Amino acid sequence: MTTPTDTSLELGPHRKGEAPAEPAPGARSKLGRNLALLAWLALAAVLGCTPHEAHDSATGHAKANHRYAGDGPVRVVCTTGQVAELVRRVGGDRVRVEALMGPGVDPHLYSPAASDVSRLTEADAIVYNGLHLEGRMAELFEKLADRRFTLAVTAGLVERRDARLRKPPEFADLYDPHVWHDAALWADCVADVAAALGEFDPKFAEAYQTNAATYREELLASDAECRESIAALPQARRVLITAHDAFGYYGAAYGLEVFGLKGISTEEEKDLAWQAELQRIIIDRNIPAVFVESAVAPRVLQALVEPVRGSGHDLQLPDEPLYADALGPADSDAATYSGMLRHNTRVIVEALAP
Ligand SMILES: [Zn+2]
Q: What residues does each domain of the chain span?
């Protein structure tokens, strides 16, 4: 049988520069990682003895031969909150959806716990973001794809070579995974998921289409709202500086110039030079605020804010975070996808408006 390449799961094959360098609230302890490793070895014992076809976890094409054979609701395990909401809305009563990553969890750094591996192996279907967002789970998805319906919601965008997909030059020829920040782009992912679920579970294909159409309308309404709010800002104020480079799609869709302190490259020396460059941009262009993210430690931005303030420039750091890679807590205004988009837009406009 094949030996599982467990170390890459534990250490994470995530792209250099993509994951924020600060440990997120959801980052796993060493003990947790070891437990996950044991579970992973057990899983490999079940799955690893048959040769598996290549499954590109970054693009995540679901295999056409997976068909749902059960009578009851389809048990779907998703990664992020935004993906879970998408599947819940498209699936309606036909699905039971669980999300592995709660509010405040950084998907770039997330390593699956033993309990996560169990949930994934017991699921009827697995749906994740893809494009290496869940970098440390890539190999697990590849394995699971042989036995389960395993779908990346962004697979259709890649297949169609959607012109809106961002491929920042610093990104080693990879796509930026944060597509959900463009609501119209995410609405296309909704249609793709509905089509894929319909193939997996043909009896309910029509229901998936109907639910998807309703959800898409909501997303497109949020898209229009967002566009209108940002358009009210003077052009010179439309500069968004955040902890890591998660808002490229948001900026492209709604008309802001976007800079991340961390993100495209986390190599330390480069970071320091980039930090100095950002400080210069903030002062020269009289930028009034920079933004904390919910899943990145606020001190990441303090390193930028303090020297700028020290030079006499009045730079604001709004108390409310932006939700970059996760939805907000259940009792917050960002607990849903549209709520998250509206929250981010409100915080941005309030802080950047003259
Ligand atoms: Zn991110």
A: 16-223, 230-352
Helix (H) or strand (E) holding 115: helix 114-122
108 CA → ligand 1 middle, Å: 6
Q: What is the pLDDT of residues 107-122, one digit of tens each?
A: 988 999 999 999 999 9
Distance 120 CA to ligand 1 centre (A): 23
**Under CATH, what is the fold of the domain 230-352?**
Rossmann fold (3.40.50)
**Res 188 pLDDT > 50:** yes
Which tokens in the block code for residue 302?
A: 């303090």
Adjacent-strand bridge partners of 316: 289
Domain 230-352 in the same topology as domain 16-223: yes
C-alpha distances out from residue 62 to 56, 99, 147, 241, 339, Å: 10, 19, 11, 36, 29
φ and ψ of 126, to 5 deg: -125, 130
For residues 167 and 164, give the distance between their C-alpha atoms in angstroms, rounded to a whole number: 9
| pTM score, whole prediction | 0.83
Output the CA 68–ligand 1 centroid distance in Å. Answer: 32
**Cα(259) to centroid(ligand 1), Å:** 13
Partners of residue 95 on adjacent β-strands: 74
CATH code for the structural domain at 16-223: 3.40.50.1980
Q: Which residues surround ligand 1, an ion (CB under 5 A)?
A: 246, 325
Whole-number Å distance, alpha carbon 325 to ligand 1 midpoint, is 5
Between the CA of 326 and the centroid of ligand 1 the distance, in Å, is: 9
Reference 111, options 24, 2, 179; nearest CA is 24
Tell me how crowded residue 265 is: count the other CB atoms within 10 A of its CB: 18
Residue 31 has pLDDT above 60, yes or no: no
pLDDT in tens, 221-263: 999 999 999 999 999 999 999 988 899 999 999 999 999 988 7
Cα–Cα distance measured from residue 324 to residue 300, given in angstroms and rounded to the nearest whole number: 15
Q: What is the pLDDT of residue 332?
A: 96
Residue with tokens 């297949």: 159
- The whole-angstrom separation of Cα 268 and Cα 245 is 16
Amino acid at 17: G
Query: Ligand 1 center to residue 59 CA distance, Å?
Result: 17
